[in-house]
Amino acid sequence: MDHCCLILSGRLLDGQDAATVHTRLAAAFGMEMGGFRERVFERAPLIIRRGLDTATAQAQAAQLRAMGVEADVLPDSDRLAWLRRDGQIRGPLPEDALPRYAHAGDQWCHDGGQTWFDWAHAPSAMPPLPEPAPEDLAAEEAAEREPPPIPVTLEPPPLPPMASTPPTAPSAPAAAPSRAPLSTAAVVAALFGLLALLYRPLSPVAVLLALGVLIHLYRRPLLRGRAFAIIALVLGGAAFLLWMHHPAAAPVVEAYVPRPLKPLPSHRASSADAPAQCTAKAPAPKNDEDRFLLTGERVLTGRAQRKGDTYVAEAAVSVNDECQPSALQLYVFHHGVFLGPALDKAANLANTRLADFDLVDDQHLSVTLAQCTEKPGDCAATTVKQFAVMPGGGGWTLGEIK
């Protein structure tokens, strides 16, 4: 299949304003006005696209004509040439098209050659370009009324060699048009999103910046950098979520340090070593927490519960002559550290019985107390108290839930 090339001649159509046409074309190529004039219009005539099928080339030529500039579709050729006019290098062009575009006094050079030749040929009688199709005429009329939409198929042409030296590069610069320019704002937004991950209070600014760049690129479809803008939005959003999420500080667990309880005097006045005798008759300690209670001469009853890192043990704080408990208390440990007694006052069995206790989980303790009368066994469960093991104040504490 024969291929065509699209050539921008540099001439404006009748009735067109140069500044308006240049502004339209610069927007279509996604270029700044200064760069557009230097890379495109000051180099015309030149090849804009190569290797196109006829339908595509005609469609793009119609787009350029609709903007008010002359554009030609010619057969593509491997033989290219450059023009030098008024010290400015123009092109490249198909060598067969030189008679159409060269002026008297111009110089030309083969692409890849080293020698400039004076142009002395008369313009050849090349066949006239076909008349624009009706739809092209309608597009041109619309262009006079309002700027046409920016075409998405045009790309900036490659840069030419320096005007002070003859072209020495092979035909590759004209064979493949350069890529559209990369948006600097998109790269900056991506770097700012990465910075927001390190310093999260910047995350709202990073998100707004990424959104602004995306809108900017949406309005300029020929600019590259959408991937950078999306990455910036993801980084900024992640930093914002991390900034908004404030996890609770991890509880500080104190290392176990033995803190012996103060020995309690026995209610048996007849024997000074009664607590030791009663301890010998009581259940043997099962762990370090039980042994800790023995240092305070508490008498274990054998009732205890453990849930996770919390341990609760029942012990007698006083005994009668028969080594029977006369007052009971619950002692709470967490991570092996003694937190304190659960009850403000030990349950005196003469009027209050510690009916039951339940360690619901490692942070909640339920205690049932029964009020008793003077008659033995006449007790009724009337009070239930709730306690919580919670972090605070440099360690874990025990408090009643009111």
UniProtKB/TrEMBL annotation:
Segments of this protein annotated with the region Disordered: 122-177
Q: Keywords in UniProt for this one?
A: Membrane, Transmembrane, Transmembrane helix
Q: Which residues cross the membrane?
A: 187-215, 227-244
Specify residue ranges for compositional bias: Pro residues.
Answer: 148-170
The identity of this protein, by name, is Uncharacterized protein
